[in-house]
Amino acid sequence: MTVRQLTLPELVEACGRLGVTHVGLWREPVAAHGLEATAGLVRDAGLTVTTLCRGGFFTAADPGERAAALADNRRAIEEAATLGTDTLVLVSGGLPAGSKDLPGARERVADALAELGPYAQRHGVRLAIEPLHPMYASDRCVVSTLAQALDLAERFPAEQVGVTVDTYHLWWDDQAPRQIARAGASGRIHSVQLADWATPLPAGVLNGRAQLGDGSIDLRRWLARVAAAGYTGPIEVELFNERLWARDGREVLAETAARFLAHLGT
Amino acid sequence: MTVRQLTLPELVEACGRLGVTHVGLWREPVAAHGLEATAGLVRDAGLTVTTLCRGGFFTAADPGERAAALADNRRAIEEAATLGTDTLVLVSGGLPAGSKDLPGARERVADALAELGPYAQRHGVRLAIEPLHPMYASDRCVVSTLAQALDLAERFPAEQVGVTVDTYHLWWDDQAPRQIARAGASGRIHSVQLADWATPLPAGVLNGRAQLGDGSIDLRRWLARVAAAGYTGPIEVELFNERLWARDGREVLAETAARFLAHLGT
């Protein structure tokens, strides 16, 4: 998504030229290119798919919407398996229209996990609940902290449900470091994502994620925390940023790789 | 601030006509009208000033900036005393330019409170740390949760330092209800403010607070929580909203009073 201006073949080629061996994919471009075609493309290029983004949106109270969401998530699980990734990232969903009941919405997320967890496990896929920044609590994700995500995940086996640690969403939270240790201790850090935080935020607050090093987050310190918690998996960089999307995608990918090495290389 | 389009004399007159007997003031309009003149204006009208907003901005690392901030806060304490309110609301300040050190900035807030608490107490004024929504953590307020605000406040006597509970900033936080009880048990709920949460947020995310009832917050439930925690003081409504500011201020004030009764009246 960091370079969504690239087609999947362009992305795969650019990764190859930069020596990037792992890539996180979103469902929409995969569907546009074709699921089997994408699986073949990355396999032939020797690329490993780190995660598939995203499932979720579990908070509808309406039974029909709810059943549709579960069906869609079962498809997402199958897609993840086809792409060869073991992790499906979940964004929980916001409040249903007119609702003011955050605890109720969070409970419906748990209900959905109970239905999907075993299905995911049978497909060799782990679900990773991603807490989003509290500014998204009403319209996108009622799970706002890593503690909440773990409270949900721990109702299920770690092989079925864990969490995504994304610096953009968690950097402000003084409890997050302790929760990262908690997540690591139970083997539930299923995915780690980086983006930097900068202001002013754009209208709608969706596409203001900053390039690594351009914001307020001590990224090296956050990576040290997930490492100390035992995480040895891939690190994704996920930047939603209109200005990056307006630029040449290959250049943005190269810049991002260079920033990663500059700010996080040893 | 909800009706900043009104001059202070217009505001006082409009309050009188609506039967509003308490008003929260900001320093800037008070300074514009004159401190002594404002004190006389509200006194003559029989209005009680609930709080003065706002002191704070304690996070500068530069010694000169730091001394200037402390001096300005001593003036704010004196202004609060002159206006007859016992509460000065504090917004802690964001990260200094270029800094990525949230814990360090939070510790400088504590240092400032240690210097200002006794001064405030001598003037009969309590300091009320206001946690702001985490979306303001980098550029406005490094204190993002009620738990953090209480961790700071509890280093000092409750007569000196407490907290502001503002629904707009806290509504997403599943830990906030427990923290409200904690704040009430130690007599530290010094101020309560209401605004509703609606999306999409405007660019800069400052002026999107929704009129009571137009958003996602179960306001009645939050007021019940502060009441259960023993709070019997005034309830302020603080709406930063460009659309409300563009309308006739008397009409907005009347609408706000009506909304308060509709959504929170018994």
From TrEMBL, chains A, B:
Q: Where is the Xylose isomerase-like TIM barrel domain?
A: 13-255
Q: Does the keyword Transmembrane helix apply?
A: no
InterPro entries per record: IolE/XylAMocC-like, Xyl_isomerase-like_sf, Xyl_isomerase-like_TIM-brl
Keyword Ribonucleoprotein attached? no
Q: Name one GO molecular function term.
A: isomerase activity
Alphabetized, the UniProt keywords read:
Isomerase
Q: How is this protein named in the record?
A: Sugar phosphate isomerase/epimerase
What organism is listed for this UniProt entry?
Streptomyces actinomycinicus
